[in-house]
C-alpha cells in the first residue's frame, strides 16, 4: 500500500477515534455534573426536610408545655370547687400525657442547648403537678401551698419563653427584643388574674 494512502488512512482513523473519545469524555463529564447536581439537590431536600421536622417538633413541644401549664393553673383555681374538679382533672391528665409523649420524642431531636431548657421546663411542670395533685388530694407536704404553686407557675411561664427563644434562635428566626421587653419578669407578675387563670401566656403572640 502506498505510504501516502496509509498515512491518510491513519490520520482518518485517529480523527474518528479522537472524535468518539471527545464525545465520550464530554458525555461522562455531563453525567458527572448531573450526578453532582442531583446529590446537591438531595442534600438541600434533606436539610429542608430536617428543618421542617425540627420546626414541627418545636411547635409541638411549645404547645404541649403551654397546655400542660394552663391545665395546672385551671386545677389550682378549681380547688375547693367540687363541681368543676372532675373535668379539670381530666384535662390535666390529658395535657400531662401529651406533654410526656412530645417531650420523649423531642429528646431524640433537640440540640443540647435547647434540650437543657426543655428539660428544665419538663422537670418544673412535673414538680408543680405533684404539688397541685397533693393539694387536690388533701395530702400536702411541708412547703406545699396554693401560693407556692402559683409562684411556680409564674416562673414556668418565664422558662417557657426562654425555651421558645432558644428554639427560634436554633431555627434562625430569632430577633432581638432588646429594649422592648427588658422587664419580662415584672410583666409576668403584672399579668391579670384573668390571664393567669385561663392559662394565657402574658407574652401572648410569641407563643403561637
Question: Biggest sheet, open or closed, and with what strands and sense?
Answer: none
Radius of gyration over all CA atoms, rounded:
32 Å
Give me the secondary-structure category: mainly alpha
Strand proportion, as a percent range, falls in under 5%
> What gross morphology would you assign?
rod-shaped
Helix segment count? 6
Q: Would you tell me the overall average pLDDT? A: 79
The strand count comes to 0
SSE string: HHHHHH
Give the termini separation: 89 Å
Task: List the uncertain runs.
Answer: 174-208
| Helical amount | over 70%
Topology diagram in text:
Layout: H1 3-78, H2 85-106, H3 112-137, H4 146-171, H5 184-190, H6 193-197
Describe this structure in words.
- The chain is mostly helical and 208 residues long.
- The chain has helices at residues 3-78, 85-106, 112-137, 146-171, 184-190, 193-197.
- The chain has six helices and no strands.
- The longest helix has 76 residues, at 3-78.
